[in-house]
């Protein structure tokens, strides 16, 4: 038995939050799930904690996970963590780029580096074409998928969630469904179609034999079900060879195939952003590296790692 937000669930005898023998000035750099949990745990132990985040909001990739339909509860999780930060007395500094000099100048004695990850950019010919976008940019609203045919390269968690978001564009809302149903506006089959088919045709290209391999077991089946309901086509065991105007060329079992694409979205994973850790590791400060800054992983693993760092400082 586990809980994404509560690492102690099922491990109550293993984890104990005990007061620190000597309260210290602790910096947590990064306001994603790992950093939030590290800051809360360290503060619970009596440390003076400052949480730095370079963006103007908290939550990290939980914000991306909350965008697809039916996943809005991730925003509730972020709100809950923010409330806990406030109650714990953690000092919060948003829109702050942290350097080793800043940490030394302000007298921090321990640092938890939770700077997250950067989107991985594969070496695919045509990736610099104007109709190619990165998945995070789509989910953050920085880019809109244009045209009808959308191809997503990468079928992991982010690729699958992006596919659900794009495929839901143009579907009717629950409130509209309720109104039409109660007022006999359409027959049941039409209503089902309006709920499950938007204005985009979405294809996910995955080089492995299955999508959503990096999604937790209790969530993966719901994502797969939603992808089927939204009519998302999955091309597994398919490797993207090149991107051209209007199409993506993939290789399946040694043969090339063409998939129509007005927009191509790249979702092939992420790379740790641990530049600050490299700068700090020989500085003499006590430094802990957690979450995606160490290695790309699930939110439940990042939060547990942040929690453990909060117990160590």
Structure description:
The protein is α/β, with parallel strands linked by helices and 313 residues long. It has two domains: 25-118 and 270-312, 3-Layer(aba) Sandwich (Rossmann fold); 121-266, FAD/NAD(P)-binding domain (3-Layer(bba) Sandwich). The protein has helices at residues 33-44, 62-65, 73-88, 100-105, 135-139, 157-167, 174-182, 188-196, 217-229, 275-280, 299-312, and strands at residues 25-29, 48-53, 91-94, 110-113, 117-119, 132-134, 149-153, 201-205, 233-235, 238-244, 247-252, 255-260, 263-266, 270-272, 286-289. A hairpin with a 2-residue loop joins strand 11 and strand 12 (255-260). Helix 1 (33-44) packs parallel to helix 3 and helix 7 (174-182) packs antiparallel against helix 8 (188-196). It is globular and about 65 Å long. The chain starts with 24 loop residues before the first strand and ends with a helix.
